[in-house]
User: What shape does this take?
Amino acid sequence: MRKNPIGFFDSGVGGLSVLKYALKIMPEENYIYFGDSLNAPYGTKAKEHVFELTEKGVEYLLKQNVKAIVVACNTATSIAVDELRKKISVPIISMEPAIKPALEKTKGKILLLATNVTLSSDRVNKLIDKYDHDKRVIKVPCPELAKKIEESVFKNINIDSYLNNILLPYRECDVTAIVLGCTHYPFVKDKIVNFFKNEIIVFDGIDGTVAHLKEILIENDIKNLSNEKGTVTIESSLKEKNTIELYNKLLFGGIL
Assistant: This one.
């Protein structure tokens, strides 16, 4: 059981940013990543459809005998994780926007960039209500950003103007921090930081997610104790010729 792989699921390439950090922290583990790029993005779909797609992806990983599953997608987390945990015996680790650390470590306004589905979810709004007593968090809907990022990755399309249009209304709002509420968004982290005149701290929640994964593995006595480097298997629902090649380039080629 300890040498069984850890499954990673995302709506596309975004979760590779989480897997990359997991490889850094726990290189001895075996991993299998499934990206649903065929159906990306999830943030513009009906909640029922998001649940169906997430459940299908998780079921696929379970067939690979994974010992734990990381739902490395904020939209899928907000819609499906609570229900899936009732049905599945293996631990499920989910993504949470890093609202708490952003509030604790900064003093100005905080932009929460996420899909409409994530921003309207009970999980995220409860998180904001719990920690944002001074009403510092500004929710910024980014309905097409994940899709644009997938297009920029697969088709090399420039998305600077689209991203700038999203951020422009907040340029003079005393923003001191940005929370990336989607695992796709680290792809444009540098562009976001460079847009603002003042120094911006970016929180993506990846380190917290991987730290929690490690804790869960230890608690359940399923952490791989080997000193050898583990394996990584990359799979995608998009069966185009260069998809897996591009996934591997993103993960291992220094792009993330």
Summary: The chain has a mean pLDDT of 94. The two ends are 30 Å apart (CA to CA).
